[in-house]
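Before a colleague's protein record goes any further, I have to sign it off. Would you go through it and say whether the fold makes sense for this chain? Take the sequence as given and treat only the tokens as open to question. The record follows directly below this note.
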Amino acid sequence: MATLSLVLDKRRQKKDGTYPLVFQVVMNSLPIKISTGLSVLENDFDTLNGVIKKSTVLNDGLFKLELTYRKRLQQYCLMDSKCSNGNDLKNYLLNKTPDEVTIEEFWDNTIVELRNLGRLGGANIYAQSKVRIGKHIDLNIPFRKFVYRDLLTLEQQMHMAGIGTNSVGVYFRTFRAICNRAIKEDVINYEWYPFRKYTIKKEKTTPRVISKNELSQYFNLDIPLDHSSFVYWNVGKLLFMLRGINITDLLLLKKTNIKKGRVIYKRAKTGKLYSIKLTEAMEAVFATFTPNETLLGLVTREQIESIKRKEHFNQRIKVTNHHLDKLGGLLALEEKLTTYVFRHTYDNAAGKLGYSKDLIATTYRRIFLSLIYIFDLFSLFSITFTNFYEFNYIYCEYRAASLPFFRTI
């Protein structure tokens, strides 16, 4: 037998003469009290009916809270009718059951966890997707109330709002990740899963790249040292020379990433290890920068360690793209020059050399293939990079042997 009622806790009166208003739960003669956060005068409380006199708003809130506690109390009685631990009962009543957790609340908690783990980029994508989707549907509902039909309606509304297919795909993949996580954490059963029969659509996009001649013209630009875009001209060169390195990874490179004539670093996003032969041409470009904690000196330690690190990096990337665009204007390029363009120009060139997409992906993980790419690409673009030393052997750990590679460049 269990009862729940709203009462005044007369054990302790406050200085203003009011008493704390609490929910009193009694189960198997075991009493517990749950605070409402309210205190009222004894004359303002109707003890018989358990309501505050002349306060409709407060009574409505208390009534909803009472219904929640009653529902949880019934569930607890079914699980443990012989309850003898008051703390267990109180904790159960105060904590939400999985069925009560809303999509919005779970999504917000996921964003907080990602930020606590230092995954600021991922957290921002989750936050942006939540805002976008929240403009078209109410996320303040339990997962079970969102069904497959709602997913189709959401897709239609977003397209009608002028959001592109690929952008919708980004938001839906994030939403799907939230749903997958909720299932893994037993917030909802897999039978509910609305994405089971839904395919996220994707449109092909035209790669933004520049031609062989345009890249050659870029490398051969005569930019004076005191030019406002000189530093960013060299950033562009490094983006290509380092196999289409991600701009964030480039900004994070430190002196410790240079080991035995190689640039060795971990991808910030995936944690994968990359190793690239450091040529004299690359060293000459690196020498044009003024390093601090990083090789390029374009971000500070404070910015790297800041909770607003993503904002700092986005601003630096924005400035870089601004200067690259100006340099592209000097060359009268048809394609707007950005960090993205350098990265995908490298991939596109590899494809033109006849390498498959799978092989291109593999080169980002294997040293011997990446060296083939880097020298073939320099040859393809007819760019003058001097003093490439003979590199005869590469040590392959998985075979524990030195393999003959190539003799001359």
User: Anything to note?
Assistant: The two ends are 87 Å apart (CA to CA). Residues 114 and 123 are 5 Å apart (CA to CA).
